[in-house]
């Protein structure tokens, strides 16, 4: 019998079964029973659609690579008829590549296959993409995991910096600017550090290419404005903000990298000789806590900006006509799997805060509850949440940054 006819009969049989179940009950049902019936109907339809092997491509921000690879292996073990191809990409890079996709496109950036699921580092990129496409091109987004921005420092550097600036709030953008300005000019000997450390070396990801870099820029902007309300183009267009931004930018030891994950890998590999601190996601500090001690004999410390934001890691369906109904169902099944309790608890092991609210962050067995992690400074108090402007304003803020530092 042809495969298409077998698939048709499977779908028909699943539909008849669901209708029969509902028809047998003429009595009102509880919300719980109705929800169970709805879930049964959805799963029956999915199983029928996924009767044959289907492949889906997922583009994701590289900083969550280890968690997502682990989760995907578990998913494919449970759903062997779904083949998931993971493409690790910089969040801003993938946003720009997708912004150039049309309905006629069959591939995108570097001739890669179009992803049916896209999971950049934050909703910042979703706003930018949908603004460029002038429609909800990335839709049905669900936050997978959360991670706030953090200053991540070697403990000896952090202790010296914090002690010198203890009366001014310790590690902050304001005090970084002071340390980098005349007459200190970034010399550790001028603000309590070992003269052998030389100049203060700051690392951050490129805001043009990385979600972590864009988060750094947003936190820097709000530190300059000293408020949570959304920034406007007018108040950042003058020379005062440009000079403020340049002082921070000049402290980087090498050109900003395109990925937060690669930046943290470099910090772990090269040690304090290259970076005294980096400004990226909290999760990367938790994930690399033991690596720092094993390789360099120095623990890490974590501090949060006064005005902060979360990397939400949304996973969105890409609205493109080339995707089949089977691929769409497989994509939704994968998306739901990543939000299951098992996989949300797994996310904690990789340093991420679960996006599902009934999975606690600081629970028994969670790395967030480990005394060594708490001693790093990891906390529920991550600063005041800043308000982000719309997609078009975000693009203009990036232009202002580029003009200021380039």
UniProtKB/TrEMBL annotation:
Signal peptide: none annotated. GO terms for molecular function: molecular carrier activity. It is found in: Periplasm. One of its GO terms (biological process) is sulfate transmembrane transport. GO terms for cellular component: periplasmic space. Belongs to the prokaryotic sulfate-binding protein family. This is ABC transporter substrate-binding protein. It comes from Candidatus Thermofonsia Clade 1 bacterium.
């Amino acid at each position: 019998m042809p495969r298409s006819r077998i698939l048709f009969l499977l779908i028909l049989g699943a539909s008849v079964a669901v209708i029969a179940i509902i028809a047998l009950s003429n009595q009102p049902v509880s919300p719980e029973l109705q929800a169970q019936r709805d879930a049964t109907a959805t799963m029956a339809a999915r199983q029928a659609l996924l009767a044959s092997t289907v492949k889906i491509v997922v583009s994701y921000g590289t900083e969550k690579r280890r968690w997502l690879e682990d989760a995907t292996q578990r998913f494919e073990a449970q759903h062997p008829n779904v083949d998931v191809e993971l493409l690790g990409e910089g969040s801003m890079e993938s946003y720009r590549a997708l912004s150039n996709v049309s309905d006629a496109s069959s591939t995108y950036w570097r001739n890669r296959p179009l992803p049916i699921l896209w999971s950049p580092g934050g909703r910042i990129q979703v706003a930018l993409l949908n603004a460029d496409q002038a429609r909800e091109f990335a839709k049905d987004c669900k936050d997978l995991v959360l991670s706030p921005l953090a200053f991540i420092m070697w403990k000896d550097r952090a202790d010296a910096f914090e002690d010198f600036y203890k009366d001014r709030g310790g590690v902050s953008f304001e005090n970084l600017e002071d340390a980098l300005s005349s007459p200190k000019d970034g010399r550790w000997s001028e603000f309590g550090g070992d003269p052998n450390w030389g100049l203060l070396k700051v690392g951050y990801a490129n805001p043009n290419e990385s979600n972590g870099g864009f988060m750094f820029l947003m936190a820097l902007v709000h530190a300059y404005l000293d408020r949570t309300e959304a920034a406007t183009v007018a108040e950042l267009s003058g020379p005062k903000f440009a000079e403020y931004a340049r002082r921070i930018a000049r402290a980087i030891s090498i050109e900003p990298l395109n990925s937060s994950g690669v930046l943290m890998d470099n910090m772990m590999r090269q040690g304090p000789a290259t970076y005294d601190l980096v400004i990226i996601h909290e999760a990367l500090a938790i994930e690399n806590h033991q690596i720092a001690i094993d390789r360099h004999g120095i623990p890490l410390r974590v501090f949060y900006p006064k005005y902060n934001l979360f990397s939400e890691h949304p996973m969105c369906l890409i609205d493109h006509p080339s995707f089949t109904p089977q691929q769409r169902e497989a994509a939704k099944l994968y998306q739901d799997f990543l939000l299951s309790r098992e996989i949300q608890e797994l996310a904690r092991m990789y340093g991420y805060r679960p996006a599902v609210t009934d999975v606690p962050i600081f629970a028994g067995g969670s790395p967030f509850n480990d005394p060594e992690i708490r001693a790093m400074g990891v906390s529920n108090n991550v600063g005041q949440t800043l308000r982000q402007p719309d997609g078009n304003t975000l693009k203009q803020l990036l232009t202002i940054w580029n003009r200021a530092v380039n």
